[in-house]
């Protein structure tokens, strides 16, 4: 082993890497657009890393290895892919003359080429961060094809900061991988563990030689139930750390396990030759006395400060948890439960928020202070007693602050009865809707948004700056809506949308228009690659002071005789894409949002809107990582959707939209939403979902997407007909709708128009064959 320094008493599992002003976004997008070269990109990346190191040192992380080396140009899983050389065969030879995957190869995997789709992207555990999915097969070769993690460590060290290099651990890497195109049907990526481990071992030796005293291997997959049997995972963990533990000259090893309790894997890691184990002691529980006994001799890195939400830590509660660990005679240090990459950087930047609200919040920088305070508590409880009392006082004052609990909202929730969650029988609704809408077979529609053009964004920016008045902005948006309606008329769509030009974001728009929320100015959180979102803060009881979408929907409907869909974001998605209050069950918060949406639906109906779509693209995202927790989640989430929509008249057609194609696991829940029509993503998976729908006997309207909107590629009419042909074989034609996979917001007009024209043409052809 290299240096034998103790694990730092205070640390973070990870830190935001996009930069305080999204400098990384600007640099990599500039690099992609050929505005800066690789050297300038490298310089920008180094500046961000050193900026982080300086900032974290200033905030008190001044021991060796306390600063997490979690910087990434794009994604931590992609980093692992490039370090171990796991390039899918479909990309051909991406290595350069030195046998290395350089920055261009790296971005090729992330962004694809003209011929090759990029690596698939999917959500990182129960966060809204997306990682790139490794594709592993029997043919995959593994070798050290990048040493970026070593170079980053050396650069920081040369500048006076000994960081703690970070790698996604080998077991998590393989558990998150999918089988490559070349792999046989029953192939399990974990079967390649023996070939992956030597490459990790080599990296560890190099890091040790470079002077790293600690390495962090991140193994979040160990806290989530997997399809692979537990015994197999236990064996993989034991074997992995046996091999890595034996790597020559390696740093000391910290294995981190964010996002929940380790359960069956704790004894396995306790028995492994690693020097420190991080446990999520915020979301997961404090391990039992028996489990703690197994950890003797290792440092326990207690993740007591939540890395995934933004409320200040209940320092008294955390101190109590730390005391239990300390009393068990363990070497305990303090950290966050997860990387703080899931929260914004610094709440002091949000000067537009009230001082009161700000005092309730801890972004990444504030979490550092919390960790440092708790580390001080472990050494000398008296030293942090004042800070702990202060935190308790703020939490107590929050509980009684104006707007946190509104009696009228609570009374309304308490008075709900089962009838409020149920509509009439579908057969009755269907008859009423057929009569009210008189739609052709295979009705065509879109998911809601039309391209957000530069003009739309610039108008919004000018309105926000006060350069144009609110009325001028409204006029511009109405002109846009008129264009979108005329286009759909011309294309001959059956059910129209207004195009959502007035919405900056489908959640933030509602957050800005409901009480109980606030939005941030600089609170960007990386969503994937260079993309960031600014989640809203849901801190109080939710109420709707006035109608939100009605004026727009009514105006759009006035432009056409065809039905215009009212467009709302559902309660689960509003929660999933916001930072949500932690002082009551999520289901209660969801129902409050549900009631506000229910009132909005009533107002839309009164304004003559006959079809209302309530989007729930995030329904799958919040699904708990442990199977045992899933039924309760599905119960409250489905109920909140039903509460939102069940006030609608029989003749009002309720649509919903979901954004993913893995249907199997939650198909009962989707059925439980009881929407009249459900649109879902399907084009990329060539309509695989229709099998699930058929097997399940899904009985209501369904629109499997026939146009993949995630790329500028235009699907031809023949391709769309073929997809529709597959769909009508599995789903009765009378249930089938025709629509793209998702909203068109990120697309340009040229490809959108052509694609939609093909979609309508193909529908007409398939329709003609039906009769
Ligand atoms: N109605 C939204 C849109 O069309 C839905 C977006 C989504 O599913 N993410 O943009
Ligand atoms: Zn979608």
From TrEMBL:
User: What organism does the record attribute this protein to?
Assistant: Arthrobacter psychrochitiniphilus
Cofactor dependency: Zn(2+)
CC cofactor note: Binds 2 Zn(2+) ions per subunit.
Known InterPro entries for this protein? Cbl-indep_Met_Synth_N (IPR013215), Cobalamin-indep_Met_synthase (IPR006276), Met_Synth_C/arc (IPR002629), UROD/MetE-like_sf (IPR038071)
Q: What is its EC number?
A: 2.1.1.14
Annotated residues that bind 5-methyltetrahydropteroyltri-L-glutamate are located at 25, 128, 531-532, 577
- The UniProt annotation places L-methionine binding at 447-449, 500, 615
- Which Gene3D superfamilies has this protein been placed in? 3.20.20.210
What this chain does, per the entry, is described as: Catalyzes the transfer of a methyl group from 5-methyltetrahydrofolate to homocysteine resulting in methionine formation.
NCBIfam families, sorted: met_syn_B12ind (TIGR01371), PRK05222.1 (NF003556)
Give the GO terms filed under biological process for this record.
Answer: methionine biosynthetic process; methylation
Q: In which family does this protein belong, per the annotation?
A: Belongs to the vitamin-B12 independent methionine synthase family.
Record-annotated Cobalamin-independent methionine synthase MetE N-terminal domain positions: 10-326
Q: In which pathway does it act?
A: Amino-acid biosynthesis; L-methionine biosynthesis via de novo pathway; L-methionine from L-homocysteine (MetE route): step 1/1
- A single GO molecular function term of this UniProt record: zinc ion binding
Q: Which residue numbers delimit the Cobalamin-independent methionine synthase MetE C-terminal/archaeal domain?
A: 442-764
Show the CDD domains listed in the entry.
Answer: CIMS_C_terminal_like (cd03311), CIMS_N_terminal_like (cd03312)
Which residues are recorded as binding Zn(2+)?
A: 657, 659, 681, 742
**Active site positions:** 710 (proton donor)
* Record-given protein name: 5-methyltetrahydropteroyltriglutamate--homocysteine S-methyltransferase
Keywords assigned? Amino-acid biosynthesis, Metal-binding, Methionine biosynthesis, Methyltransferase, Repeat, Transferase, Zinc
